[in-house]
Amino acid sequence: MPDTPPPESVKLVITSLGEMKRARQPITSVTAYDYPSGRLADSAGIDVVLVGDSAAMTVLGYDSTLPIAMDEMITLTRAVARGVRRAIVVADMPFGSFQVSDETAVANAVRLAREGGADAVKIEGAGPSLSRARAIIDAGVPVMGHVGLTPQSVTKLGGYRAQGRTAEAAHRIVDEARALEAAGCFAVVLEAVPAPVAARATEGLAIPTIGIGAGVSCDGQVLVWHDLLGISTGHVPRFVKQYGRIGDAIGLALRAYVADVRAGAFPSAEHTYPMPDDERQKFEKT
Fold it and tell me: DSSP per residue over 19-75, as a string?
């Protein structure tokens, strides 16, 4: 198992995020799950492309993030990494990939980096995750933390609901973020927490905070690809802003295709390959 530090290019990217925080330059992040999405996000100037375990629901059709497996995350991460040239690629460590032990966590983090091409990994929670983060970082893989609403613990948290809405819970989230920084994480995601709580954490940390449903005071923001583009179906979280209605456009295109095929309007001559007349005549005579 490698114990070398991350490549210089990765260290430079991670350092640049800290510099963006100090310069008060907002950090942009989106999830992506395949090559074209990674390429488009990168070319649009996105700073951090997160291969989220949210793919379990948005891409694979599961009801939660829990069923997605390491091999699936590696496949998705590898596809995204092929499309990214300048942004940092962070891969979620799926449920079960780091909870068991430090050794298991390190082995799986190294797989995401080596096989998946991730520049860094993200783990949820604090508590036992602090030990996991330290071990992964010591093995040479940068780690992003994640506190607040942690979907892998959604049953324990009582469902998909905002966290830190009492003073006690708010202090706990801030303390967890600080503990992740002390463990060596280069950034922390704050999900579904009240804006004042996110502001306190952001002010108190030297590393960047990336908010999702955590208000404008975070050092950066992340949204799920399918939510941002209007591809998702069903409930749209309160914190989502849809910057497009791509799902509607896709539906219109597919319905037009179905209508053309059934009407015999597609394919037309312009969509077919010609054959020289002499060869066609020869073919038809035999």
Answer: HHHHTT--EEEEE--SHHHHHHHHHTT-SEEEE-TTHHHHTS--SSSTT--HHHHHH
CA distance readout (Å), 178 to 29, 141, 190? 21, 20, 12
Active site amino acids: 191
Other beta carbons less than 10 A from residue 61's beta carbon: 8
CA distances (Å), 185 to each of 28, 45, 132, 229, 270, in order?
18, 24, 11, 30, 56
Domains along the sequence of the chain with CATH: 8-244 (3.20.20.60), 249-285 (no CATH)
Q: Which two tokens stand for residue 204?
A: 């108190």
CA 131 to chain centre: 23
Q: What is the pLDDT of residues 34-53, one digit of tens each?
A: 999 999 999 999 999 999 99
Is a pLDDT exceeding 50 seen at residue 5? Answer: no
Mean local confidence (pLDDT), 129-133: 96
* C-alpha–C-alpha distance, residues 41 and 144, integer Å: 19
Residue 61 Rama label (left phi>0; alpha psi -120 to 50; beta): left
Which residues have C-beta within 8 Å of that of residue 209, sequence separation ≥ 6?
Answer: 177, 187, 188, 189, 190, 198, 201, 202, 218, 219, 220
Q: What angle do CA 178, 183, 185 make, to 5 degrees?
A: 80
Residues 6+ apart with CB under 8 A from 55: 31, 33, 68, 72, 73, 76
